Amino acid sequence: MTDIQQCVTVDLRGGPESFPEELRHPQVLTTQERVKISYYGGYEHFERDTESDDAVYRWIGRTRVAE
User: Is residue 12's pLDDT more than 60?
Assistant: First the structure.
């Protein structure tokens, strides 16, 4: 028997002001500590906010796509 992994809708906070609202509420696995969202030639990285509820992730940085 395998465990069924659950998804929840989370709130991504922080990051660039131009980061679109429609990308700020993805569904992620409940076990996922970090979220990486492709945006404008790079990736925005968010980490679970341990001082808030489990559905809040805070921006921790950006990486560029390697060419």
Answer: yes
